[in-house]
Amino acid sequence: MRNDPIELSRLSAEVEAKAPVYTELSDRIWGMPELRFAEHRSVEAQIAQLEAEGFTVTRDVAGIPTAFVAESGDGGPVIGFLGEFDALAGLSQEAGVAEPRAEVPGGSGHGCGHNLLGAGAMLAAVTARDALRTQGLPGTVRYYGCPGEEGGSGKTFMAREGVFDGLDAAVTWHPGPLNGVMSVKSLANFQVYFRFRGKASHAAGSPHLGRSALDAVELMNVGVNYLREHVPQDSRVHYAITDSGGVSPNVVQARAEVLYLIRAPRVEQAKALFDRVVECARGAAIMTGTTMTMEVDKACSETLPNTTLEMALHGNLLNIGAPAYDAADRDFAAAIKGTLSEEDVSSSLASFGAEAALGGAALHDGVLPFDGTSIIQHGSTDVGDVSQIVPTVQAWGGCWAVGTPFHTWQAVAQGKSGQAHKGMVQAAKAMAATALDAFRDPELLARAKAELTERRGGRAYECPIPAEVVAPPLRVVR
Amino acid sequence: MRNDPIELSRLSAEVEAKAPVYTELSDRIWGMPELRFAEHRSVEAQIAQLEAEGFTVTRDVAGIPTAFVAESGDGGPVIGFLGEFDALAGLSQEAGVAEPRAEVPGGSGHGCGHNLLGAGAMLAAVTARDALRTQGLPGTVRYYGCPGEEGGSGKTFMAREGVFDGLDAAVTWHPGPLNGVMSVKSLANFQVYFRFRGKASHAAGSPHLGRSALDAVELMNVGVNYLREHVPQDSRVHYAITDSGGVSPNVVQARAEVLYLIRAPRVEQAKALFDRVVECARGAAIMTGTTMTMEVDKACSETLPNTTLEMALHGNLLNIGAPAYDAADRDFAAAIKGTLSEEDVSSSLASFGAEAALGGAALHDGVLPFDGTSIIQHGSTDVGDVSQIVPTVQAWGGCWAVGTPFHTWQAVAQGKSGQAHKGMVQAAKAMAATALDAFRDPELLARAKAELTERRGGRAYECPIPAEVVAPPLRVVR
Amino acid sequence: MRNDPIELSRLSAEVEAKAPVYTELSDRIWGMPELRFAEHRSVEAQIAQLEAEGFTVTRDVAGIPTAFVAESGDGGPVIGFLGEFDALAGLSQEAGVAEPRAEVPGGSGHGCGHNLLGAGAMLAAVTARDALRTQGLPGTVRYYGCPGEEGGSGKTFMAREGVFDGLDAAVTWHPGPLNGVMSVKSLANFQVYFRFRGKASHAAGSPHLGRSALDAVELMNVGVNYLREHVPQDSRVHYAITDSGGVSPNVVQARAEVLYLIRAPRVEQAKALFDRVVECARGAAIMTGTTMTMEVDKACSETLPNTTLEMALHGNLLNIGAPAYDAADRDFAAAIKGTLSEEDVSSSLASFGAEAALGGAALHDGVLPFDGTSIIQHGSTDVGDVSQIVPTVQAWGGCWAVGTPFHTWQAVAQGKSGQAHKGMVQAAKAMAATALDAFRDPELLARAKAELTERRGGRAYECPIPAEVVAPPLRVVR
Amino acid sequence: MRNDPIELSRLSAEVEAKAPVYTELSDRIWGMPELRFAEHRSVEAQIAQLEAEGFTVTRDVAGIPTAFVAESGDGGPVIGFLGEFDALAGLSQEAGVAEPRAEVPGGSGHGCGHNLLGAGAMLAAVTARDALRTQGLPGTVRYYGCPGEEGGSGKTFMAREGVFDGLDAAVTWHPGPLNGVMSVKSLANFQVYFRFRGKASHAAGSPHLGRSALDAVELMNVGVNYLREHVPQDSRVHYAITDSGGVSPNVVQARAEVLYLIRAPRVEQAKALFDRVVECARGAAIMTGTTMTMEVDKACSETLPNTTLEMALHGNLLNIGAPAYDAADRDFAAAIKGTLSEEDVSSSLASFGAEAALGGAALHDGVLPFDGTSIIQHGSTDVGDVSQIVPTVQAWGGCWAVGTPFHTWQAVAQGKSGQAHKGMVQAAKAMAATALDAFRDPELLARAKAELTERRGGRAYECPIPAEVVAPPLRVVR
Predict the structure, then answer these.
(1) B330 and B193: one domain?
(2) Secondary structure (3-state) at C58
């Protein structure tokens, strides 16, 4: 019932045939890095290509200017491919060099490989739609243009508006240093601004008249650091001081702001932990005689793995095999790997559940083993909310040197490399093949849905972002 | 109208005549150091002597078993002499040696010289009463046996019950390293226990179920340390952790307690600061999910100097002169001074407003200059509450080596020395002479009372210890 | 080759026959709770019984007065049974009641069920020895009397002296609320005292002259609470303030002490984390102008599970089945469970990997499933060091109501109950049966040893307790 | 020998005659607020006027582009007038309105009245020079154009280069809400940047690999807040976080910076306190595994009052009397005062030693009493370094409503008001008169110098700014 070798080989050939267009698209987006919810040029480039492929595009989805849905096909199951395209601040970096060198000092860069992510998911979507047509199968393919993954939870806002309703399955991938199934339990999170207001005063002449908002931020942080001892296993809390109240030490700081990111394995745990962080903020305000207000910036749910679809994906990955990296790829990857510490590499491998050092290779020539066991991954992704609504499956595509950490200059530098292109194409093949499995095998989809129902324990999806938080955030993106 | 040289000389002779009895009493009390509100034997010794001198004694004053008032005389103005007799924990020390050597390891000791204080005030009271009799003057002398000065605010409890009402003036002294008028503005204070209750839990297995009361104490303390920047000038806040919640690190501490001592120049400032410390405690409880209760242990008011009486005392001190220390006194004092750092000595001198090094002498052969300017003294004393009710005058008696800090083994070691005895006797002369000035000069008393009225700005005395706090504290003295 | 049903049934009968003697011994030890390294009476009671059973006893093992080894048998493999018998401070509690009620206020109690642990391991050892004799098999049985498990790491001190060398396998168990294999990865740990010395000073009069050791302890703790964010997953750090420097707030605290317990999955991680905690202590001393010294109290290694032996144990447990609790047991267990919160119960179940609520039963009528997967257990045990030296297998015996947390009055209250006795006897059967499996199956032992070798990755055992730390700790047990 | 009434009246008339030019100059500088060390236009305006008055100007004094000295006269004593002209960031405010209303949102403003300060000192200098000429007296007048007083310590840099050497006396003033002698002991200070470098890491995925520089800043701050308890009386420490390491909570902050301002009564105390703050920084770096570097930004010495010159100034002030405020001045001042809290007003009055409420008046119609007692003022000024080198005398000129705090919109709003002009002119009269006293009375200058020598206790002036710190600071002014 699944893709036989001949079919898989035909599908692979189709992906390869269209690959140049999509690697060029990826490179183009790499070259115009845009921050969360401001990905206007990247979105236009994607839409132009999708329309050229005959997809019908709906813009401004969920009220977000850079969110869109492209659809093609006819009846049958509906399978969505999730694409991203936002970049990261401060990560400008030249491509193809193995040393940190900003293209635009202070500029943005694609440190998470979302240029590849979007283009690769599109390539898979187009190929799957073509295969449905060729084979005369019913079925509808959607490509979701999902903005603001980096700190923006674009998909969660989209989920709140029902954009993923009606899907039978969702498929996506992420560039990384390894090939394989991405069966992760990522953490749910809440991102919240806490603002304190006090009273300014001359810090030397009349400090007793001042009420320091900076004191409040610091005491809140101390309180939260004490709280760390008493949080559920695998929780995470981190913060940045987004306003220290001014640079003048001789004025008692009348205002200050801190941005908290609070994560836990399940969204209800994250909410409970958030509530306790709020108590730290309240306590700090009381201690300092200041007032506190807060603003939820965004939130997302934990990812529910779908072993059913993951086993199907894994089969395809094994059949397709690792990308065929060439000598130039290997040389560049080795140079990049040479800039990483042993700890970086082993920590990266451990995060994939790949404890062994892969024989020291600079590129991953295999496919990660997968026995249905999911890994706890301490980051968060708005794919989580999609996975709460529809069976979702994700692949890792080996686009970077082994050990390359996310959000680094090394990731940006490899963003247009041979290994990046090959990893993207290989992932597109596996995604397209898995989608076709689902289109052709109603039983597979049924089991995937049953698994989701069981994992959710009967709870309806509840979006963690409060209704009053507007998407995209009105706050200036910093 | 004031003591002429002949009279002063006669009075001095009378003091000297009775001195051996009172130095022996002082030495005896030195030898049985009793902690605050438990000074039963010391009180019996004092009462026996007072009764032998014909004083009428009222025991159990203000409901405190070791508080008493002894009275003698007939009509006229009523002048009170304030005596103390409590010792300090952990200061057991052999007398007469210039090295730290506990008599009873871990035992108590007279580190504040209250053995001398009580005996010297009695000697002055008895001599003044005798002089009234001899000279046929109307007037009543009272000796107040005031317990629990060290951390107990005995006089404040007594003041709350009206024990000092009806006095025309109060006279007292304190042993120290110098001779002179003690014209100080001491700080008002509040001493309060804060107790937190949380939830125990296995600190490794289920830390998330625990709510740590020790965390609360630590966070309260952090909060208060931040608060230090924002308190009125000359305030003081300090604390001791009186219950750290157990010595086992693998149990989340379910209970903890911290004792705060909060001081400020005026009692209303101290109260306001206390309220802010309470906010730190509240904030810490909220941060940690614990509950907080508090218990006021004691409080006292700031001392109001009385320049009118102080100028009279200063005149007497100048006429009487410094104690006639002998060579043995000087040798021992030099040895003691040799155990002090230069910083100890200069800090001690500065606290008396005696910036200069007194020529390096080991004993103070002069009398501190006094021009009516009071010194801020950052400690507290329950004499403060007496001074709010009645014009109060205090002397320093040079009983210790120059630079000797209070509450040290050095102070205990000198507690029965020649310099201690001579300093006590000289102070008794000055106190008796000043009391006689007041008995004989209605105008002096009138001016002293007018000054008090002005300093109080028309406010009635309000005892800072809440009515529900029982005297003596029920809490076990630790 | 393994116990066939008939043999297992015979072995069970032998255990049952001897059970009354050992449940009585357990009850007796429950009634004389002794703290770590002071278990003199408990040891005498155990030795008397072992000698009565014909074991040869070596006392004062590893220089520890309450450590001993009892041996019986002849040649063949050597299998050790590990017994414990120390109690916990502050947990005095009446037996058989479902409310907190101390027998001796402030007294000790068997809150971890070590009365059962020792007696049960002895019962297994004796039965195994008897079976060897009966069946004419070669083999030597040892019973290790291991003191000071609670915060003392008795076995680690014993391991340092080579006491467990020469064993072919070690077998033990622990009372708990459930039945099953205890296949845990417990944490390695270090327990260390940090002491600070500063300079006393009058906290109001001359705070600038003081250097506060209590400040240093608090700042070290703040530093460590910040460090929590940056430690390896599954690490734990907790502390108790063992000397807060005195209860007097008006003296700057010249001395203070804090006791840290530092844990991590592997002993080398624990050592690295310990080093970072030391940096926090150093930093705090520098910040406060105080000096710091430290003293390692004890340490232990992580437990290495042995799946080979665990699968054998699991087979035996399944064959033996759960204890046959009676109605009285169930009633008492239900009453105890009624005193626990839902969170207590679910947290307890989760710690055993038993997510489901077991149908709400008050006693565990089954055997935990086991597929060879070990659980991370965030506590520590000195069994860890034994498991680094010799293949070690552990059982859980269902002695308490479902959800009963360790180190609670509920555990003590059930220490002589029907469920406790039955759980102990059932565990003894399983331990004896597994030991006999090993005695009879050289291949099983060989595989168990090979597994240990692989898990250790070729490293030799290195005792984490520095050589200069004396066993038992010279420090007064608090 | 001093100004007789006729002479004083003549001098006053001369000041009044030239006043319009200088009030216009002051208004002009008010209208072009420039921050520290960037006062180019203000300097040009001042130099143009001084050259018009025949002064010889030396630019680029001490290597600072906006520092200059203007000189006129011939031989005799040399008396310097100190002028300032820098503004404050963030204090843009419309003139003449009694509500906060920025002229340029976010712009700068003359919140400390330095537009008046410079113009008023020039007016005094010119008048004094004219009087010397008119009266045929020998004597040289200098006007010092002193940049960067606000957080820049311009005069201290100038003092390091010897610019004030050779003066016989220095005269200056400051606008404020009251008229009188400014006899203050201001605090010495050090302003220092502490920078920490750590290691970035994904805060959720691999927090254990990160070393947080922000943690280091926070822990340093906690340490310093604990240190507050143990600093000399009247010290001050305050700080601003000048780089919080980024606004992204999901990255462990690899860099952070905090700016400390450390003050104490004497420069050597400030240096000792600075050293202890450095220990807090070092300790924080050790705690967090980060590295720390520091950069001294600036420093200044405490002000030494000169009672000799102050008594002369006071006599002149009494003779000249308060400014003749008119009804419009009083109305506007009343409106401004209405925007202040009672605490603002009483706190302001207290800082001048004017405890009484001045009868509730909105402008100060008198002259502060002065008996030679100096006030501790907890701010700092680079006039301090001048006062260490040469006898220096300062006046307060009543330019603002009673209670107006420094560095507020209220101060800016009154910067061109009638009261500001009148207060400036009256201060100029008193300064000119006092300078003439000194020119004419060698004995006065001799006594003033002797007083300085005594106050300095024989120490040579040592500039607190390390030699390697460049003036003006290279750092971008923020």
Answers:
(1) no
(2) strand
Q: Does a structural domain hold residue D477?
A: no
Q: Are residues D252 and D400 in the same domain?
A: no
Q: What residues form DSSP beta bridges with C397?
A: C175
By residue range, what is the domain housing residue B377? 5-185+302-456
C91 shares its domain with C129: yes
Q: B265 and B359: one domain?
A: no
* A301 DSSP assignment: P
The yes-or-no verdict on residue C398 having pLDDT over 60 is yes
The whole-chain average pLDDT of chain B stands at: 94
Say what the pLDDT of residue D477 is.
36
Interface contact B246-C222, CB threshold 8 A: no
Q: Is B276's CB within 8 Å of A282's CB?
A: no
Which residues in chain B are closer than 8 Å to D229, comparing Cβ atoms? 225, 228, 237-238
Task: Write out the two tokens for B197.
Answer: 């209750």
Q: Do A230 and B210 touch (CB under 8 A)?
A: yes
Question: Strand locations in C184-304, DSSP E?
Answer: 184-186, 188-197, 236-243, 255-264, 291-300
Residues A116/A420, Cβ–Cβ less than 8 Å? yes
**Chain C residues in contact with A233 (beta carbon < 8 A):** 234, 378
Of C225, C234, C238, which has the smallest distance from its Cβ to A225's Cβ? C225
Reading the block at residue A201, the tokens are 């005063």
Cα distance from C360 to chain B (closest Cα, Å)? 21
Q: Is residue D26 included in any domain, yes or no?
A: yes
Q: Chain D contacts of C287, Cβ < 8 Å?
A: 223, 226-227, 279-280, 282-284
Predicted confidence (pLDDT) per residue in C176-201, tens digit: 999 999 999 999 999 999 999 999 88
Q: Which of D88, D214, D248, D475 to mutate to test the interface with A (most CBs of A within 10 A)?
A: D248
CA-to-CA separations, D264 to A176, A475, D121, D299, in angstroms, rounded: 56, 43, 28, 12
**Residues on chain C bordering chain D, Cβ-to-Cβ distance under 8 angstroms:** 203, 207-208, 210-212, 215, 218-219, 222-223, 226-227, 229-233, 252, 276, 279-280, 282-289
Of B268, B300, B332, the domain-final residue: B300
Residue B467 lies in a domain: no
Chain C environment of D231 (Cβ under 8 Å): 208
For residue C287, pLDDT beyond 80: yes
Provide CB contacts within 8 A for A85, sequence distance 6+.
A29, A34, A39, A42, A43, A46, A114, A115, A117, A118, A145, A147
- Inter-chain CB proximity A229 and C238 less than 8 Å: yes
User: Where is the domain boundary, D300, D322, D339?
Assistant: D300
Residues C160 and C242 in one domain: no
A168 and A312 belong to one structural domain: yes
Number of domains observed in the structure of chain C: 2
CATH of the domain at D401: 3.40.630.10
C225 min Cα distance to partner chain A (Å): 5
The reply to whether D82 and D194 lie within a common domain is no
> Which residues of chain D does B218 touch, with a Cβ-Cβ cutoff of 8 Å?
none
Give the closest-approach CA distance of C153 to chain D in angstroms. Answer: 28
The residue with tokens 């209760």 is B293
Give the pairing type, strands D255-264 and D188-197: antiparallel
Q: How confident is the model at residue B360 (pLDDT cuts 50, 70, 90)?
A: confident
Q: Which residues of B touch C260 (CB under 8 A)?
A: 249
One domain, residues A349 and A317: yes
CB-based contacts of B413, cutoff 8 Å, min separation 6: B93, B94, B95, B96, B97, B98, B336
Each residue's pLDDT tens digit, A133-190: 999 999 999 999 999 998 889 999 999 999 999 999 999 999 999 999 999 999 999 9
CATH number of the structural domain spanning residue A222 = 3.30.70.360
Distance CA(B362)–CA(C93), nearest Å, equals 62
Question: Rounded to a whole number, what is the distance in Å from the CA of A406 to chain B's nearest CA?
Answer: 30
Average pLDDT value for residue range C273-282: 98
Residue C236 tokens, joined: 């734990």
Q: Is residue D475 part of a domain?
A: no
